[in-house]
User: Fold this.
Amino acid sequence: MRVLLVDDHALFRAGTASLLRAWGMDVVGQAGNGLEALELTRRLHPDLVLMDITMPDCNGLEATRLIKAELPETRIVVVTVFDDDEHLFEAIKSGAEGYLFKDTSEQEFERTLEAVAAGEPALSPGLAAKILDEFTRLAREGPRQAEEGGLTAREREVLQLVAQGATNREVAAALHLSQHTVNFHMKNTLRKLHLKNRAQAVAYAVRAGLVAPPEEP
Assistant:
């Protein structure tokens, strides 16, 4: 299996790479942030991306969304220190096939990667149960989400700032994203709302009550 490692800590990447090679896997590349991960995935077409969450320029959740939008066949497993539900749910919603903690034992890590290679999700029973509960809740809220155009929380955040007059550069700075990621979210928003430009998106969002109207100067 050809693997791309994405983590902003070079020492962690080196240790993981040594472990994977000992198991007979081919580490085809390493990246220190989400944008590098996207570029290397485009060029190298790995079977699996092991993705950290907290990284500069473009975090792992944003990178997962970008990679999955462009290269949906790429399998991604998030490897992180975060054990809270919010990061877990966002990772899976972003398209990740699995979620692992960095203190996972070598045996569990190897079993997880074998499961991914076999086309199975890389989740412990406990995490799988949490995700099932969350998706059940989302299914109950389906009618309300449909009324809101099916926008994600991040897309709504971007649209809120745009409706207040922020440029994509200012939105990127405010949300600690890259401008490329903001452009991606705006493109998705226009597609979901069946609109042609950001002015129409803002007008629609205010009219539909999806975001607050721009404040008067």
Summary: The two ends are 57 Å apart (CA to CA). The domain at 2-137 is CATH 3.40.50.2300 (Rossmann fold). Residues 141-147 have pLDDT under 50 and may be disordered. The CA atoms of residues 4 and 124 lie 22 Å apart.
